[in-house]
Amino acid sequence: MNSQIPSVELISISKLFGSVTAVDNMSLRIEDGEFFSLLGPSGCGKTTTLRMIGGFEMPSMGEVHISGEAQGFRPAYKRPVNTVFQNYALFPHMTVYQNTAFGLEMQKVPKLEIKKRVFEALEMVRLAGMENRKPQQLSGGQQQRVALARALINQPKVLLLDEPLGALDLKLRKAMQLELKDLQGRVGITFIYVTHDQEEALTMSDRIGVMRRGRLLQVGSPEQVYETPATRFVANFIGDSNYLEGQVKERSADQATVALESGETMWAQPASELTIGEHVTLAFRPEKVHISPGDEPRPEGNAILCSVKDVVYTGSFTTYLLCTQDESEIMVRWQNEAGARQRRFDPGDGVYASWPPELTTAFLPEEDIPAGHTSSVDVIEAMEPSR
């Protein structure tokens, strides 16, 4: 991933379906050999973006470059990419071998070369010995591997994957996530993966781009997107977050001092430029919160006095629901440590909830919703070819 020329570059691309903006002035650089995921809810424009990269849709504005070359209005079959779809798109009357070889046969590749590459591709996706089976004789995971083999056999520069694991059950989907990541590492080509599953994106990706209503809100590593979300939507969409409302009282280069509506003072990392007096929302993750008895000294950092409202034990962790004095709620997720004599709290107990200021983010209200953006999620869902 050190090439100076990106594998894929989107330059101010937009896609309009009539009066509806499905993708809104998006710029993105994806490096060679990267596993990049576009993540967002249904109708956010991620599949439309993938289709513009693949040549199935043309941008209304902007340019798509692949390996430094502008694609213009070049159709899908002339681009150095292949696509794997959620429904596999296998020919039911053909064998695994025939499905895998289909693209090479259309290119008039010699039969001996086809045979060599088919068996190499099937070996790569762990389907050696199944070349004579029909799709209906395979499991869902095996059918998906055939689709992968068929896409990879053409040696594309970029592989586009449109929610390819969506039709699989949970256990198989998790197993295939690891297989896909391993496969991408072995073949070394760029994977661009579309999903609405946050855990899936976090598990497999080198970097993630989070989309909402046609806009790219944040791009970063899984850790960056999770630990330092750029907007409240990102914080809410990827994992669980707690939220407290307040007003900016002081502002330094890298920290904001915020007075909560209940009067407590908190410190946070600003997600954007903040000015004194502005109303902000503070976000912090449930697993970052520590609980201590309310009759002990107030902990350092961000801390607030609460009462325990509910306790749920789920084996690997215990979830506490706390209620502040102004009736805000704070969720706490404590990892249960094997063999440790961990302090337990019961409903009604008075406790301090505390968490590090450096793991607290301050957002402006609704900063992730573009001004003047009139298209609705429902309209975009109806206009997009698929999501």
Give the key terms.
2 domains; Rossmann fold; five-stranded mixed barrel; six-stranded mixed beta sheet; single chain; 24% helix; OB fold (Dihydrolipoamide Acetyltransferase, E2P); 387 residues; alpha+beta; 33% strand
CATH architectural group of the largest domain: 3-Layer(aba) Sandwich
Give the overall silhouette.
elongated
The oligomeric state is single chain
The beta-strand count equals 20
Overall pLDDT: 88
Alpha carbon gyration radius: 25 Å
CATH topology of the largest domain: Rossmann fold
Q: Could you state the CATH homologous superfamily of the largest domain?
A: P-loop containing nucleotide triphosphate hydrolases
N- to C-terminal distance: 28 Å
Per DSSP, the total helix count is 9
Fraction in helix: 10-25%
Overall description:
- By secondary structure, the chain is of the alpha+beta class.
- Helix 2 packs across helix 3, helix 2 runs parallel beside helix 4 and helix 3 packs across helix 4.
- 39% of the residues are buried.
Can you give me a brief rundown of this structure?
The protein is α+β, with helices and mostly antiparallel strands. The protein has nine helices and 20 strands.
Itemize the secondary structure elements and their pairings.
Layout lengths: L7 E10 L2 E11 L4 E5 L6 H9 L6 E6 L2 E2 L10 E4 L11 H11 L4 H14 L15 H13 L5 E5 L7 H18 L2 E6 L2 H7 L2 E6 L2 E6 L1 H6 L4 H6 L4 E10 L4 E5 L4 E6 L8 E6 L5 E4 L8 E12 L3 E8 L4 E7 L14 E6 L5 E3 L13 H7 L4
Parallel strand pairs: 3-8, 3-9, 6-7, 7-8, 13-20
Antiparallel strand pairs: 1-2, 1-4, 4-5, 9-10, 11-12, 11-14, 12-13, 14-20, 15-19, 16-17, 16-19, 17-18
Helix pairs in contact: 2-3, 2-4, 3-4
